[in-house]
Amino acid sequence: MTDAMRARLVEADEHGNTRLIGGRCRRCERHQFPLDACCPYCGAADDEIERVHLSDVGELWGWTAVLTAPPGYRGRVPFGFGVVELPEGIRLITRLSIADPERLAFGMPMKLMQHVLHTDEQDHDAFTWCFTPAVAG
Q: Taking the model in full, what pTM does it have?
């Protein structure tokens, strides 16, 4: 697996849905994010790591609102920030689509989505990924 393949964090799946790129160790069967050259749990090498799309749903474990822009940040504030656990057992520290902590709850189902972070001087959108509350149905 090349470094360029490992460097990608997100891509569209065969249906056009945003998916995180992770790994699954063939030796210990645990998942990782981001995809890396060895297993962080058992130390298996690159040939034991399978590239996989991780689940695009999870549960909210913790959250806050970021009220002040970090240095160099060009997006809007406030924005939500939290921890989402995927069914694979991975907890991600991630951007949330909702900044108001009162609208979020522990265990809330969340769905992965693309999000426009900001628009540059050439009017091109810079995208990132985030989690938003999943809509039932």
A: 0.86
pLDDT digit string, tens, across residues 3-15: 555 568 888 878 8
Q: Where are the beta strands (DSSP E) in the chain?
A: 10-12, 18-25, 31-32, 49-53, 57-66, 79-85, 91-96, 109-119, 125-133
* Domain boundaries, given as residue ranges, for the chain: 3-53, 57-133
- From CA 9, how far away is CA 3, in angstroms rounded? 12
In the numeric block, the tokens 């809007």 are attached to 76
**Tell me: the pLDDT tens digits for 97-130?**
999 999 999 999 999 998 888 788 888 887 888 9
